[in-house]
Amino acid sequence: MRADALRGHLELLLLAILAAGPMHGYAVIQELRRRSSGRFELAEGTVYPALQRLERSGLVASSWSAESGRRRRIYTLTKRGSRALVERRSEWAAFSQGVAAVLGQAT
Amino acid sequence: MKTPDTIADYLVALNASLVTSLDRAERILTEIEDYLRNDANERVARGATAQEAERAAIAQLGPPHEVARRFGSDLSGSLNEHLWRNLERFDRWRLYHPWLGAIVVPTLPVTAFFAGMTLLMAPLLGSSHGPPNDWWVIIVLSSLLTFAAYGARNRALLGRPEPSFRTRQGQWSMEHPWLAASVAMSPIIIGVTRGIPTPQGVSFLTVFGLLVFLKMGFGHRGHATRPQPHPDALDSAPPVVTRPSLIAASVSFLERHWFSIALPAAWVVIFRRWDLPVLLVAGWLTQRVAVSLVGRKRDAATPAARYSAWAHEHPWLEPVLGFGASLIPLLTWIIWTSGPFPRLLWIMLPLCLMVAIVVIRLATAARKQHKESLPQDLLADAERI
To answer: Which strands, in side-by-side order, build the sheet including A70-77?
Structure first.
């Protein structure tokens, strides 16, 4: 899938991944790759700015942790982020149903 | 621009392209370093050599200037951050107009510097300590030397391969640290050679200029001599990004803080008075209180984010609050001690207003551009929230 097709949906994907529990940035990227089975042509440089945007919006919180001598930023979904995820999931479901209906599923 | 081959080089290039505060740069660089090392380690585990692994991890992440652009600039909302962010358009113009840029760029800060210094010093010291009679000679000599130095530097930047004026300037400064410091400080160097007198008979600008010159020079040198990890020891290599290395290496940190450090220090040393440092600290506290107050009702995770939300709603008020609140104690003191309208205040007020209007216009225009560059879904989310 092209990177521009992901535009607008990356933050929903990140919220969904963080719903599984707190993670650092690299783990988020790995999980994104694993769940999508490598379908997204995602430039990894877009994930960290997106995480910071989510944090500025209050949907995600973060804090430093030290692992084997290295500092890592751990991201956690906030309550507001959980609510936003529920809301955006339902929006996505309605959107994808609409697209599927227009394209025609019985091909 | 050639993409760096090693993680350390990549981080240096990314740091040079970031337009943000020291704290945020530290966070971004630490996270990116963590990502690159993890990715490279995985590739090594799959059989790649360390060099191949680093190159592949870097290629996967993208060119440093592109990654820096995605992070955008800081949204903390302070006047400094707005200016850094908003000068991008101006940077594009001056890249292709080296001689015009050489005249415009130093003129604004030098005007603000002399106007500000006169505003600060004259009322506190009394009107008998105004500019010397041969002031105009200093101005003319400073201007000519400065225009020539900036013009020559800008011409040199034209032929460089980096993508933007700021990255070209950063790389050039790293390669020629003392030359860069000399160009940046050329107006003050002229002031030093002319020996502007103070009431104590000491040249104020001699001390002041030397201090700034040394700080700038060391800043550029630190940037150029960042330690490089051994490429074969990805796991055991110490982190490239550390707070001390960033502070030592960050030209922007020194450029942003030299005035607030050097001016009060020189004031205390030369005049043996503590009033200006105390007033500046009081101004900083006033600004922090004002920032907390205006952001308190905004719904965001951190105080900086709450202030940022307020600043985006009030683009014209933000520079007034961001800069003006810090001046309240100082102006109150000046008016209290020397009457409401000292003669020099009348002279300098229009000049300062002119500079302030230019600053506000730049900040507002570039804020609009920045907003347009943000992803539309993010803006829609922000509006909905």
So the answer is: A23-24, A70-77, A60-67
* ipTM of this predicted structure: 0.84
Nearest to B34 among A25, A57, A78 (CB): A25
In terms of DSSP H, where are the helices of chain B? Answer: 7-17, 22-45, 50-61, 64-71, 79-86, 88-95, 98-125, 135-158, 165-175, 177-184, 186-194, 204-224, 243-249, 251-271, 275-295, 303-313, 317-319, 325-338, 343-373, 376-384
Question: Is 0.90 surpassed by the pTM of this model?
Answer: no
B377 and A53 in contact by Cβ < 8 A?
no
What are the distances in angstroms from CA B78 to CA B164, B248, B252, B308, B354?
Answer: 24, 23, 15, 8, 20
Beta-carbon separation of A49 and B305 below 8 A:
no
pLDDT tens digits along B141-194: 666 777 777 788 888 888 777 666 766 777 777 777 677 767 766 655 555 555
Spatial distance between the Cα atoms of B166 and A22, rounded to a whole number of angstroms: 37
